[in-house]
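Hello,

I think I submitted the S-adenosyl-L-homocysteine job twice by accident. Can you confirm which output corresponds to this input? Input:
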Amino acid sequence: MSRTVREREDVGRMEFLLTLRRRGISDAGVLRAMDEVPRERFVEEGQADIAYADQALPIACGQTISQPYVVAYMTELLALRPHHRVLEVGTGSGYQAAVLSRLARKVVTIERYRTLAEQARARFRALGYDNIDVVVGDGFAGVAEQAPYDRIMVTAAAESVPQALLDQLAEDGIMVLPLGPHDGPQRIVRLTKSQTGLAREELIAVRFVPLLPGVAREL
Ligand code: SAH
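Support: Only one job matched these inputs. Its output is below.
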């Protein structure tokens, strides 16, 4: 008997969580947030049937929505608490910001493409996620007006840590970002700020689109 689209989706979502667990995601809050946010609402039209496969997918403006495992992994590294204020650089589809918004008090997310920012805003509104601010701007500069942030996540790869983001990170804050050359090996790095300085951990190998300077001139 053939399965309905709905049944296929349910099986897909069950496997989705199992895959995350199998790959080592163990934080119950992160798993709950990944379960709660409907990824099919953040992918391009016609791709809903593969929304729960563990892969990155193309979105508008030549960008990508990250692989679910990497979203869960980076979220887990932030060790979010319900009172936290979070800055995300690289809104893209809005999916990562949506996951963060389920675990923190407030999420500010910045995107250099107006089109992507507007689409993400519409998705948040439709889902009733009202603790996310979408800003169009250059993430290299962060969003100083709303700083400091307890947590910062960058979802595009830079060669080095943008100084403005370090400045906007609160004391005892954690920043997670992919670092490395655009076409070469990148790693997720976690920085923890304390009175005595900055602790740095180099973690898994990844592949992200580049963090590019300035607001996009195209839409
Ligand atoms: N977090 C996204 C993944 C987006 S891919 C999601 O969940 O879908 C990375 C995004 O970073 C792209 O949309 C790209 O346009 C954006 N980006 C790249 N450089 C930027 C910059 N300097 N400031 C803001 N956004 C930037």
